[in-house]
């Protein structure tokens, strides 16, 4: 079917008295990458790119060493995770094929993001062990530990719900659990922004990294607006 025929057939099944299509919701034939810049997603993109740029500029203007992989890998993890959320957020069960494809890519991107975060965790743990540093003393270290654990559990839960639904008592029950995965996903992401903001207050950053707090706070506000306004309350089980 050509694009124009497809558009025409969509127009004919859309009676005039029906409300206009919800432009924040992706339709079956829309290219998936539209979701990355659909409506409020633009705020979230601005936010995550400001955050990544602030971290990378700070790191590349300081002395590069094994430790510097920690912030770099963590910011890449958050960048990938943001794309994963944005890709899936505007999909709905009224466009099931679109939703299924988006869910597959969401899993892959979040898998890569979590791998990047876990690698960032390995770097800092190795780095601390190599000079007998004390673990989990600062606010950043404590919040960061919680973020790593939550990201790991989040990815595990998502993968099991999709690929091993029998563990939850069948596909219908596994799908009924998605709302918890969504809610904990947003909370985990929010906490990861707190971890990055707290990273700017560490001794290393104050002396060497010099990543400013204000672009991270600005990024946090833009991400909260972009991701927050894209949330559909019914998908969280709120009617
Ligand atoms: C999602 C993002 C991040 C997470 C989850 C995270 C997590 C962690 C964790 C768990 C530790 C403690 C390791 C230990 O005590 O054994 C740590 C240490 C550290 N991180 Fe991050 N981090 C993140 C981003 C960043 C960024 C962007 C920077 C930028 C400078 C950074 C700088 C540091 C520094 C300097 C330490 C050592 C100081 C300390 O232990 O408080 N981190 N991080």
UniProtKB/TrEMBL annotation:
Spans through the membrane: 41-59, 65-88, 108-126, 146-168, 180-199, 211-231
Lipid bilayer topology: Multi-pass membrane protein
Region annotation (Disordered) ranges: 1-25
Keywords of the record: Electron transport, Heme, Iron, Membrane, Metal-binding, Transmembrane, Transmembrane helix, Transport
Main subcellular location of this protein, as a coarse class: membrane
Gene Ontology molecular functions: metal ion binding; transmembrane monodehydroascorbate reductase activity
Basic and acidic residues: compositionally biased ranges: 8-25
Needed cofactors: heme b
PROSITE patterns given in the database record: CYTOCHROME_B561 (PS50939)
Cell compartments where the protein resides: Membrane
One GO location term (cellular component): membrane
Start and end residues of each Cytochrome b561 domain: 34-236
PANTHER family: CYTOCHROME B561 DOMAIN-CONTAINING PROTEIN, OS05G0565100 PROTEIN
Designated name of the protein: Cytochrome b561 domain-containing protein
Source species: Geranomyces variabilis
């Amino acid at each position: 079917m050509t694009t124009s025929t497809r558009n025409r057939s969509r127009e004919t099944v859309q009676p005039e008295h029906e409300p206009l299509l919800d432009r924040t919701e992706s339709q079956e034939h829309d290219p998936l990458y539209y979701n990355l810049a659909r409506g409020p997603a633009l705020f979230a993109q601005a936010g995550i790119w400001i955050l990544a740029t602030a971290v990378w500029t700070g790191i590349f203007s300081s002395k590069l060493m094994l430790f510097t992989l920690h912030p770099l890998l963590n910011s890449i993890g958050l960048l990938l995770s943001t794309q994963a959320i944005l890709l899936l957020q505007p999909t709905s069960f009224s466009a099931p094929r679109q939703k299924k494809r988006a869910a597959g890519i969401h899993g892959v991107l979040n898998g890569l993001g979590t791998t990047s975060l876990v690698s960032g965790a390995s770097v800092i743990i190795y780095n601390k062990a190599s000079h007998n540093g004390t673990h989990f003393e600062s606010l950043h270290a404590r919040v960061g530990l919680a973020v790593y654990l939550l990201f790991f559990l989040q990815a595990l839960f998502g993968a099991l719900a999709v690929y091993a639904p029998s563990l939850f008592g069948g596909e219908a029950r596994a799908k009924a659990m998605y709302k918890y995965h969504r809610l904990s996903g947003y909370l985990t992401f929010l906490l990861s922004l707190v971890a990055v903001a707290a990273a700017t207050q560490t001794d290393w950053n104050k002396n060497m990294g010099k990543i400013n707090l204000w672009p991270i706070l600005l990024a946090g506000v833009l991400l909260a607006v972009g991701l927050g306004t894209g949330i559909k309350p019914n998908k969280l089980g709120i009617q």
